[in-house]
Amino acid sequence: MKTIGETLRQIRKSKGLKLKDLAINGVSATFISKVERNESNIGLNKFEALLNGLHVSYDEFKYLQNNYSQNSQEEFLEKLNNFVIDENLYGIQRLYEDEKVLTPENSPEKSSHFYNMTLALCLMRKIQGKRLPQKDTKLLVKYLLSIDSWGVYELRLFNNAMFIFDHASLMALTQIAIDRSKYYLQLPGYSDLLSSILSNAIELLIENHELEFAKKLLSQNEGNLDFEKITQSKIKIIFLAALIAEKQRSQSPVPSSPEAIIAACYSLKAVNWSNELNKYLQDWRKTTK
Predict the structure, then answer these.
(1) DSSP states of the chain as a string?
(2) Tens of pLDDT along 186-242?
(3) Fewest CB atoms within 10 A around its CB: which of 1, 66, 100, 109?
């Protein structure tokens, strides 16, 4: 990973800017030069001023600093998801061992690597059909409940660990996830992540035939999402709502049937979405006959 100074210099040079061009808001050219040469630290206010002067977001800066790659947590989750899809127990085991090495011996529950390790272990046990490690999962729940304001790490951790929880806990934690991260909804990516969490939680409840739990969770949170900005997970939420209504033969107005939502996706050229929803619908109807 590059240093902050090296990354700042790379961005400045790529934009054809001189040191004096960034010397604004109390940040001198001399100071910027020292930061770029790693001879001086930089405070948050001055760092934000430089990012604004470079017209670069913090996420873009970190992406460049990581040599055009994701951060370690995103990389871990991406690898883990790929291994789970392939049911690659060896790959999951390697990730588990890597996180175990990085977990401190003293107060391991204060490290993100401990919860990554717990998630990997639970997924291995799930694939093997073995009982989940109750002690570690309780520590995971305790950690999530202890956080007053959930950030991206907590949201992604929970989104990948939903299968661990019983139905009541899943519903409660999903509500907590939404309530404790609502202050960040205007930030890029947060709304999409929350809609993905809600969609996955509802889907999991439906697959376990907990329709009342799913319906309640849906009704409590539909108003928290902006459906004017459509995403795949929001389409999935609308689709799942139609499934619940169909199953319960609801008398309340339903905006569309599952088939109509699939057809709309086809019309929008979202063929993969359509195929995924159609397969889900056929599987759903086979299991609920």
Answers:
(1) ---HHHHHHHHHHHTT--HHHH--TT--HHHHHHHHTTSS---HHHHHHHHHHHT--HHHHHHHHTTSS--HHHHHHHHHHHHHHTT-HHHHHHHHHHHHHHS-SSSGGGSHHHHHHHHHHHHHHHHHTPPP-HHHHHHHHHHHHH-SS--HHHHHHHHHHGGGS-HHHHHHHHHHHHHTTGGGTTSTTHHHHHHHHHHHHHHHHHHTT-HHHHHHHHHHHGGGS-TTS--HHHHHHHHHHHHHHHHHT--S--S--HHHHHHHHHHTT-HHHHHHHHHHHHHHHHHT-
(2) 776 777 888 899 999 999 999 888 888 898 888 888 777 777 778 888 899 999 998
(3) 1
Q: How far apart (Å, rounded) are the C-alpha atoms in residues 94 and 100?
A: 10
Tokens of 202: 């509802």
Per-residue pLDDT for 249 more than 80? no
Backbone φ, ψ for residue 228 (5° rounding): -70, -25
Distance between CA atoms of residues 243 and 202, nearest Å: 11
Q: Give the confidence band of 250 by pLDDT, cuts at 50, 70, 90.
A: low
What is the value of pTM for the model shown?
0.73
Structure tokens at 168: 């009541």
Q: Would you state the pLDDT for residue 98?
A: 93
**CA 239, 243, 247: angle at the middle one, nearest 5?**
170
- Contacts of residue 112, Cβ cutoff 8 Å, sequence gap at least 6: 73, 153
